[in-house]
Amino acid sequence: MSILEIKDLHATVETPEGTKEILKGVDLTIKGGETHAIMGPNGSGKSTLAYSIAGHPKYEITGGSVMLDGEDVLEMSVDERARAGLFLAMQYPVEVPGVTVSNFLRTAKTAVSGQAPALRTWVKDVKSAMADLKMDEAFADRNVNEGFSGGEKKRHEILQMELLKPSIAILDETDSGLDVDALRIVSEGVNRAKANTDLGVMLITHYTRILNYIKPDFVHVFVDGRVAEQGGPELAERLEAEGYERFLAGAE
Ligand code: ADP
Ligand code: MG
Ligand code: MG
Asked: Which residues form a coiled coil (predicted)?
């Protein structure tokens, strides 16, 4: 079973006004099989947390640690992080001109597992994962992210996750811009991955809606660059009813 341990993580970003500290001491531990919802107001630093774990060059880690199964994630290259079992849904948000979904997935699988997947089983796996996500077969021949709708982008992310079989997945606003049908299909994909493997999930979301489909074991309220409160699923229900005001009042 995998374990991702984030301890007192601090990160800054360069803005036109100067260096700004966004993460102000994040403590969070995610074990295989667990689903953690990270909920918080806009601008609280949720995406910065995801990008910092992903190794995005824009964010400088100024303190604390991120360990995966005892290995120092912050010392790893972005590729090494993926090979170690981390999946970050926002890792490839850009268009990749001239690279089809099919080639992209095979290249990613090869990079993550260290060897090219056997063609026969791979083609079958891709087809069945796409069918599960109600994706048209023609989608495999399209260029990555080129003209993808919001829903197609999210399905493509979950398709990657299902095929790459990570140990810890970080999903940032996977629910944004999805209609109810797409939300259900994408959530079922996450739940399948949870059922088939010992996946640990960090589910970052502003709204409680997706938590009706993906049940969290733990809920963390993220305010002003750190975890302000944590609890079980009942905490999400309270946030739904009360909003974030109570926490914002306490933030500086
Ligand atoms: P959230 O995902 O919770 O909405 P973000 O992590 O996106 O929050 O942003 C947190 C804060 O950091 C915001 O004030 C945002 O403007 C700032 N920020 C994040 N990334 C950058 C960046 N690349 N350049 C400048 N400011 C940034
Ligand atoms: Mg601190
Ligand atoms: Mg965000």
From this structure: none
pLDDT digits (tens, 9 = 90+) for 114-129: 999 999 999 999 999 9
Atom of ligand 1 nearest to the CA of 222: 3
Query: Would you put residue 89 in left (φ > 0), alpha (ψ -120 to 50) or beta?
Result: alpha
Q: Is the CB of 22 under 6 A from ligand 1?
A: yes
What range defines the domain where residue 78 resides?
3-250
pLDDT digits (tens, 9 = 90+) for 5-35: 999 999 999 999 999 999 999 999 999 999 9
Strands, sheet with 59-68, edge to edge from the N-terminal-most edge strand? 18-31, 3-15, 59-68, 71-72
Helix axes 119-132, 150-164, angle to 10 degrees: 140
| 3 state SS of 74 | helix
In the chain, where does DSSP find H-type helix? 46-54, 78-83, 101-113, 119-132, 150-164, 180-196, 233-242, 245-250
Tally of domains within the chain = 1
Residue 17's pLDDT is what? Answer: 95
Q: How far, in Å, from the CA of 182 to the mean position of ligand 2?
A: 39
The ipTM is 0.94
Distance in angstroms (rounded) separating the CA atoms of residues 100 and 43: 34
226, 240 in Cβ contact below 8 A?
no
Residue 117 tokens, joined: 């997947």
